[in-house]
C-alpha cells in the first residue's frame, strides 16, 4: 500500500520543469513535424535528463525520475527550427503537460529543456501545441501567438514557478514572474540580518506592472520558504516557517518610514481609493481574419480603461490603475463599417503611472460582473469590483497597519474604433 501511495505522489509532482539556459535560434518558415522518433534521439534525451540529477537539489532527483517514468516517449514529435537544431515535444502525464527539448542535431546533444503546461481556455480551439510552444520560447518578445487563448506556464526541476504567459485570442495579456525588490535590514546590532521581500509581478501587454507582496526571506532561514508548482491541474502555494522572518511583512531601514504604530494608523487613514475617469487609455489589436465562406471579419482586441486611483496625500502621490479587457470583435463583411462584440472578458487590474510611495504597499483584489451585451452587440456593459488592502510599514516596530477599501466602477465598452 505504501508503494502505491508513493507512486501516486510521484505522478502528482511529475508536473515540474527542466528549464536551463536556452540558446538563441532562428525559426524556420514552415517547420515539418516528425512523429515516430528515432530510438537514438530518445536515448539522448533520456540520458540528458538522467544527468540533470547531478545538478539539482535533493527534491529534484525523485521528480526527474517521476518525469521520465510518466513521459509518453512513443507520442513525441520533432520539428526542425534551424538547419542544425530541432524542438522535440514529449507529452507528460496529462493532456496539458509536456517536455520541450531544444536539440542540436549536428552534435547530438540537448541545448536546453523545458517542462511546460499549455492550458487552453477554449475547448473548441484546435491549436497546434508545437506552434504555441515554439512561439513562446523562440519569439519571447512577441505579443502574438497563433490565436491561442490560455496560459503557458513553466517550472524548474525542484518545483519552483518560473513564469506564466497569458494570451487572449493570440494577444499577450500579461507575463507573470516572481521577483525581489532589494535587500533590507532588520534587528539590532547583535541580531542584524538581511531580508529580501518577494513579489508577484504581473507585466501587462501595454508594459504596465502590478507588484503584489508575497513573503519575506531572511538570511537565517534554512528551509525553502516559498514554492509554487503544478499538482493535479492547478497551482498551489506552500509557505515555510521562515516567511516574514518572524514578522508580518518586510521591514525597511529608511528613516522616512520610522513611524510609531499610532502614527502609522493615522497616516494610512489619509489614503483615498476612488473611481477614476473611465476613459480608454490604450488598445491593442491582433491581425484581422476573414471566414472564406461567410466573409465575416474578426479581430482580437485588448482594451485598457482608466478605472481606479489611490491618493497617498502624505506623499503627494496618485497611483492610477487600469481595467483590462480582452475579446474578439467582428464585422459582417469587409465593407461593413460597424464593429460588434463576439466575446469580451475582464482580465484584471494593472498599475499605471506613479510608483507606490516608500513604506506603502497596496494589494488589489478584483472581480467583474457578467458582461451584458447590447441587442445589436455594438457595446457591452460591465461592473468591476475592487478591494484595496493598503499597508504601511512602521519601522522600527515592524508591524503593518491595513485599511481595506472597496470600490465599484461601471463601464460601457464600444466595439467600434476608439
Outline the fold blueprint.
Blueprint: H1 2-13, E1 33-34, H2 39-51, H3 60-70, E2 77-82, E3 85-91, E4 97-104, E5 109-120, H4 129-138, E6 150-155, E7 161-168, E8 171-186, E9 193-204, E10 209-218, E11 226-230, E12 235-239, H5 261-269, E13 271-275, E14 280-285, E15 289-290, E16 297-312, E17 317-331, E18 340-352, E19 360-368, E20 372-373, E21 379-394, E22 399-414
Antiparallel strand pairs: 1-2, 2-3, 3-4, 4-5, 5-6, 6-7, 7-8, 8-9, 9-10, 11-12, 13-16, 14-16, 15-16, 16-17, 17-18, 19-21, 20-21, 21-22
Description:
The chain has 418 residues and is mainly beta. It has a domain of 160 residues. Helices cover 13% and strands 47% of the residues. It has five helices and 22 strands. Strands 1-2-3-4-5-6-7-8-9-10 form a ten-stranded antiparallel beta sheet, sandwiched between helices. Helix 1 packs across helix 3. The radius of gyration is 24 Å and the shape is flat. The N and C termini lie far apart (63 Å).
